[in-house]
């Protein structure tokens, strides 16, 4: 059904210098960037968007951007060569949308990690193009009955993906129920890097963080962050702009109303136990933007939260 909706929306598109290809469920799919030799079968539809400025791949499951390649540049995003594309399983890489809670749900730890939206189908609600040929796709999600049984707060989520020479993501979550709703979320970007050992993150120096490898104990980032073991750090109320320096390449992460920054790489030992990462952990750094931990929100009945994140590279 999602495929039918999508196909009918795509029929009426009048795009200038842009194409959206729909790869139907079960089609063979070749992820972008360095792993072009890996082709894999996907259980759900995937969109490939080719514009005058970029190429992007987006999965309908999770509204997950899997690849974003601005013209003349490398893919900003990492997608694991061991990723699986099975209905209901998290896809390792790209930008998972973690909501309506991030990480372990602190009130009900037995609930699925990172919320219910990253492993379910979203619907393509709208397609538009700006005068400068930036392509905008809007995806929508609402929880099913099982989700509402576990988390009894009706809500809707919308994600607008703007593809120009930079990638913009605007996430809007609205409390559709009558009770106040607890909300935490993150846009969980996996960035492709070439030399993990030499990666430097600009924009966190001197800031406090919670170390998720040490029971969320609080420390100050007084030294350069080294990716020489598992790193899992939460910087609350940081906001602003971060830059990932990977050799001469700089990836810039900017945003509004997504003030929590989480930096994660599993390191060799943890990665060895992650079936969809294994030896490839050196290929990425996660720098996630959202509202979580001390930045968690409470939405009043009918209230919405909106956050924007922009990604670009030199
Ligand atoms: O393996 P996943 O459920 O996708 O989670 C991957 C990672 O996400 C975030 O970065 C968390 O801070 C980490 O603690 C977690 O390991």
TrEMBL record:
InterPro entries linked to this entry: Aldose_1/G6P_1-epimerase, G6P_1-epimerase, Gal_mutarotase_sf_dom, GH-type_carb-bd
Keyword check for Isomerase: yes
Keywords: Isomerase
E.C. number(s) listed in UniProt: 5.1.3.15
Catalytic activity annotation: alpha-D-glucose 6-phosphate = beta-D-glucose 6-phosphate
Presence of the UniProt keyword Lipoprotein in the record: no
Enzyme class: isomerase
Pfam family, one: Aldose_epim
Similarity comment: family membership: Belongs to the glucose-6-phosphate 1-epimerase family.
Protein name (Swiss-Prot/TrEMBL): Putative glucose-6-phosphate 1-epimerase
Organism for this UniProt entry: Zhongshania marina
Lineage: Bacteria, Pseudomonadati, Pseudomonadota, Gammaproteobacteria, Cellvibrionales
